[in-house]
Specification:
By secondary structure, the chain is α/β, with parallel strands linked by helices. The chain has 13 helices and 15 strands. It folds into 2 domains: 162 residues, DNAb Helicase, Chain A (Orthogonal Bundle); 253 residues, P-loop containing nucleotide triphosphate hydrolases (Rossmann fold). The model has no long low-confidence stretch (mean pLDDT 88). InterPro entries: DNA_heli_DnaB-like_N_sf, DNA_helicase_DnaB-like_N, DNA_helicase_N/primase_C, P-loop_NTPase.
């Protein structure tokens, strides 16, 4: 059996060739993509590159004589080179052996390849260390998850210095690009990858509203205007609180009404019951949720309540759990493009007249995170007295909307065949129907 080839951690020849070229053309030092950390420290290559960059920035050149003075000033000249070939002699050898500037990309790539190999090796060693030294499997999996994130960054990192950076560009070019049509999930209300957090008191009907939204979307009806046909969407309803039998009874009426109207959710509406909750801070549960989304491919995921989607840990700050939850959701929406409808609670008491406050319970992280932060509550005056019928609710905001959308002005319980009926002011309703027409026209274009 042939012994495996051992590749040196640094490509010293490529580093020497690169540095020799950069002494001649230091203006290419930034764009070549090589940084001091990519270079062999045992030969002083990082210090030499830093001196080249600093000298060019200050003097517009990296002339060898000036470079020698710069290294002496930094007391780094004797670090440059190896063995008997150090300092000025090593610098002379680099300049004498310098290639044509046109070959800089080749040598820079060889240097960066060596760096990426070292990083992969370090991550692999870290995986071995954590698997063999940690008794607690949860700690092993958490450490492995962090290392895999690092590995993903290494894999995605461009090797070439002039490789494009996703999302980076000139504003003048950006604003002149044609805008694509809205990628609606609920026309006029929710686009793909939006994050919506709906909060309210216990028993206010948040979970019922989520069921209605998921059902009508899958049936091809607008959730806030059920008589209006729209393109059917795929939905996933994740209940982290109610047992399956209770959820089944709650869904029968809504799904049954859809069937009575001659339409169907077909294979577009999925549900997942986890009454004990999940922990999106744990790699196993994050992977399980990703598998569920991979299998169902929803346009909208409704999940809640949020406090049952992560578990506290020793040493947590006030924002640790919510921030980890948010990071997990952000990863999934970026990966799959689905919107998230997240149910959460309001604190008890201390509003006007003993009514509930309108902000989310727990961390202030929730105030900054979603695109739309909605509070489902009954309208009250400053003394806490109801100003409308007990079945009338308004959608207030616990944070400003990031874009103007046609959310209902009011929601009314039990006013139609469905649990919730949306009430719109005329102008807002007109905007909603404009979005529906836009989405339906896009569907015709696709066909």
């Amino acid at each position: 059996m042939t012994a495996p080839t051992t590749i040196a951690p640094h490509n010293v020849d490529a580093e020497r060739a690169l540095l020799g070229i950069l002494i001649e053309v230091p203006q290419l030092a930034e764009s070549c993509g090589v940084r001091p950390g990519d270079l062999d420290s045992s030969r002083g290559h990082p210090e030499l590159l830093s001196a080249i960059q600093a000298l060019f920035e200050d003097k517009g050149t990296a002339d060898p004589v000036l470079l020698l003075d710069e290294l002496r000033r930094r007391d780094q000249l004797n670090r440059i080179g190896d063995g008997d070939h150090r300092g000025a002699l090593y610098l002379h050898e680099l300049v004498s052996a310098a290639r044509q500037p046109g070959s800089i990309g080749h040598f820079a790539r060889l240097v960066r390849e060596a760096t990426l190999r070292r990083q992969v090796q370090e991550i692999g060693a870290g995986l071995v260390r954590t698997a063999t030294s940690q008794a607690d499997l949860d700690v092993v999996l958490d450490n492995a998850s962090e290392l895999l994130v690092r590995l993903g960054l290494v894999v995605d990192e461009p090797i070439d210095g002039d490789a494009p950076i996703p999302g980076l560009g000139l504003v003048s070019d950006f604003v002149n690009e044609p805008s694509p049509p809205h990628s609606w999930v609920i026309p006029g209300v929710i686009e793909r990858a939006d994050r919506i957090m709906l909060i309210g008191g216990e028993g206010s009907g948040k979970s019922v509203l989520a069921r209605q939204v998921c059902t009508l979307l899958a049936a091809g009806r607008h959730p806030f205007a059920p008589k209006v046909k729209i393109r059917p969407r795929r939905t996933l309803l994740i209940d982290l609180e109610n047992p399956p039998d209770l959820m089944r009874r709650g869904l029968r009426g809504i799904v049954g009404q859809v069937w009575n109207e001659g339409v169907d959710v077909e294979d577009r509406f999925w549900r997942w019951n986890r009454p004990g909750g999940i922990d999106l801070r744990a790699p196993a549960d994050r992977a399980l949720l990703a598998q569920a989304i991979e299998k169902t491919r929803p346009d909208l995921v409704a999940i809640g309540p949020a406090y049952k989607a992560f578990r506290p840990r020793s040493g947590d700050t006030h924002e640790s759990g919510p921030a980890d939850f948010g990071a997990a959701i952000d990863h999934l929406r970026e990966r799959y493009g689905c919107a998230f409808w997240i149910e959460h609670h309001t604190p008890k008491g201390d509003g006007a007249g003993g009514s509930r406050r309108g902000d989310p319970i727990g961390s202030s992280y929730w105030l900054r995170w979603p695109e739309f932060g909605l509070t489902l509550r009954q309208p009250r005056d400053e003394r806490g007295h109801l100003t409308a019928e007990p079945n009338v609710y308004v959608l207030q905001r616990f944070r400003g909307d990031r874009e103007s959308r046609s959310w209902p002005d009011r929601l009314i319980k039990g006013a139609s065949q469905y649990p919730w009926t949306a009430d719109y002011d005329p102008e807002n309703r007109a905007n909603l129907f404009d979005a529906v027409e836009e989405d339906n026209a896009l569907a015709l274009d696709i066909l």
